[in-house]
Amino acid sequence: MKKRFNNYTWGIAVVLLFATMSCSKFEEINTDPEMPKAVNSSMISERIILGLANPPSQKSFMQPYMLTKQVAWTELPEGYQYNNLGEEESALTGLNDAEYMVDFATTDGLSKSYAGVKHVARAIRFFEGTMKLGDIPYKEALQGESEKIYFPKYDLQKDVFLGILDELEKADQLFQAGDKFTGDPVYAGNTLQWRKFANTFALNVLIQLSRKTTDPDLRVKERFKKIVDGGVLFASNADNFQLIRSDKSGQTYPFYKVSNSFVIYPVVSSEVIEPLKARKDRRLFYYAAPAALKIANGKSQNEFDAYVGVDPSLPFGDIADIVVTKDFSKLNDRYFELVTGEPTQQYSYPQFCFIMAEATARGWINGTAVDWYKKGIEASMKFVADNTPNQDQYTHKMSMDASYIAEVIAKYGLEFPQDTEKQIAEIILQKYLASYLQLSHMPYYDYRRTGYPVWKINPNSSMNSEATSKIPVRWKYKDREYNYNAENVKEAVKRQFEGVDDPNQLMWILK
Fold it and tell me: Is the pTM of this model over 0.90?
């Protein structure tokens, strides 16, 4: 009994001893020296900007380019390739703490700059959401913490676009008054670069409203001209909203081969190869590799006829048969052999040039459409050439030097059509070719708005069960929205699509 008592009292003494030890000592022992002690504006800004600029990797990186018919996938039938978009939601979670980025700023100038980042980020995310779905929450979105609004109403798509345009205008004003800031992996906190991006992205938003030029509230043509007249816009590839890749964890090119088991599955589409071959455009040799069968049969890697595109609308079994023959072009090696690959663009100077060309062709602004058209092709070629090692493995002995680019641009100018509709078709085609494995869903948005490029549709392979002869024009609302915000999403579907969440019904901007 005594032994028991002594052991018990000794245990109590030990507990009391630890209880009297300093709390700060405990905290010191358990502090991770690599963890930040406080969140600041720079940290939030960097996360938000990376969320906007950094695409997913491996197979997920390729999925938008299945939708835009730039690649065919040979692993198994993919919904995006075969016109089944599935469900989507307006992804805003990355913006939940954007307001704190502004609140934590240490000066008024920094506060304005971080507020500019916030408005650009909001504009991009709401643009992505409404372009995919139609009506989405806007005015009541992201109000859960501040206003306790957990079930936001869905705004009319027109009102969402008005809000997006207002936010981009506000961002331009804030950056003009703001200071250089930290936490920016794209423009290193240069507020002039951010002004250029905000204004140039606004032109992209406006061109998507090309069917709404008579709307008195949007004032599409007037807004477009005002921004162009302001002159704070992209001027070269140096202005691209892009991430330059590096040989560091998490910063390598998204389709780099290491730990990427999907490099064997993408093949280059005929929708890309055929127009490049028809125009004798050397970007072909930078985008694709020669077909193994053609090389075996005596073709050289620097011959256009050595390159064979696969029709992505073919039934999957037919594509599998083509793969066996080796009569197809895989991706150029640079897309998976080079750790840095090329910078990944979310918005680019070539895209801006083609938007200007289209706006000029439509008569929105003064100028000559062919001049902007040539600038877009030239910028695309320079971007590809500048970001590709001048080695035969990647250029296939068909390098694009300055003299070649000047010669081919002049030829493109001479062949530019005179008819307005044909001009727009050619502009959108070149915008598409310049977007190869870049810009995510942007070419799809142009296709559904203009009908260009004219992609092949095969009812025998289509997964668009409600309309096998069409490419869907929108995603469906995600089941989660029906589960958690049923009343509001159902009301939005009723007013837009007569109560049927149908991917083939036109949203407001397409009517």
Answer: yes
